[in-house]
Amino acid sequence: MPAGIVETRYGKVEGVIQKGIQIWRGIPYARPPLGPLRLRAPQSPQAWSGVRATKRFGPNSAQMDNAMSGFLGGTSTPPPSGEDCLYVNIWSPGADQQKRPVLVWIHGGAFVAGSGADPWYDGSSFARNGDVVVVTINYRLGMLGFLYLDELGGKEHEYVANCGLLDQIAALEWVRDNIENFGGDPENITLAGESAGAMSIGALLATPRARGLFQRAILESGAAHNVMSRHAATDVARSFIAHLGLAENQLADLETVSVARILEAQQLSVRNMLGGPVIDGQLLPGKPLEMIASGSASQVPLLIGTNRDEARLFSLFSGRQPKVNHTELERLFGTRGREVFASYLQARHDQSEINAWMDIVTDRTFRIPALRLAEKQLPHAPAIWVYRFDWPSPAFGGRLGACHALEIPFVWNSLDAEVAQLFIEESPAAPPIAETMHAAWIAFIRSGNPQTPQLPAWPCYQLSERPTMLFHEQNQLAPDPQGIERQHWENVL
């Protein structure tokens, strides 16, 4: 059934109604970044006449197709991808100008994969259960989104850094200017994301141009550490240009290189999540954590957390038997490396050295950065809530634990999505946890406080007790969980 026709600043759109929720898919928020617009800041979309049908998702951002990116993005069969990808999708209880709270979601995928169209980001449940307007977005990924060339070609090449972040800002500006006609409140926006989506938010909290475009933020398994220095980004750019077979004085040819060649060269150049936001001194003036500490995101409440066993997902998908990396232990902790590892091992009931190492990797990559962000924001916005997702997946013989991205279908109440079922296996314990987490996220989106009647008392985060909500079959509030392990990271990272 067609949804009502809605007027945007660029033309009228018509979506569909499914089970009482109005849905618009594939609304352009910027011009397709093709040809001369490749590696440039997003431009406002061209206006259209008549009514534009917005009943199908637009293409995903250009990306490789592989099993890991499929899971990080939420589907084992990703839709077609390409450069013409700058679209938003909207779920609303009604285009009636009721000024409902708005959730804007930035998808994860290691800055090289994912889509706002993935099935477990279906906003119907938030719209139905929370009277919330939901917006998911696509943004440029990989080298098309985060290539940094200033140190190679100078300013004369006219390419810009951080196109992916600029896309996210452009999408937020579009929401600000248009969402009221879809039933949302442009002054009550919660920006949320997972993994690279949350890491993007960590950067946006420090970006002056994003100031005021959202009023609160939810960061799942991502914080403010995952940014590149100009030096590191230049090294990646040199490798990328070389793999394309170009010289550094041939940057103009980047406009005409095929997307297939770009993705091939990108895969050879980008390692260990390098390829995300760059501290370019312009859009992102400095290290996000330092800028947040100085008040760049003052008065922005946060709901932030991680999963208990984040790293196990990457270990499973690597196809290699995990091993304790003693070199990395020494790099992180110096002469304390053995002592720290012994402490992690002692904290585990299973006394598994591999799982203890996975705990260290989880802390290094996700948990400690999340806690650091909460700590830096506390003086400027004391309304901060911290959680940990603890429910272990039964899949793969239990090897995943509460792995990276597993919380997504619980938060979205989308347990029936295909990829979610692969990891949840119709466990009877899952639906009640999803109901509880979904309600807590709705509460935060609506009021800035995730407290609900289903949960134990959940106070704001503070440094004396470090209260953390643990989501499991029996939810509980824990003071400073894994506190001994946390203390090992003081003056580290």
TrEMBL record:
Its keywords, alphabetically, are: Hydrolase
Enzyme kind, highest EC tier: hydrolase
**Has UniProt tagged this entry with the keyword Hydrolase?**
yes
Q: Which InterPro entries match?
A: AB_hydrolase_fold, CarbesteraseB, Carboxylesterase_B_AS, Carboxylesterase_B_CS, Type-B_Carboxylest/Lipase
Q: Hey, what's the signal peptide range on this chain? A: none
* E.C. designation(s): 3.1.1.-
Give all residue intervals belonging to the Carboxylesterase type B domain.
5-476
Record-annotated membrane-spanning stretches: none
Family stated for the protein in its record: Belongs to the type-B carboxylesterase/lipase family.
- Its recorded name reads Carboxylic ester hydrolase
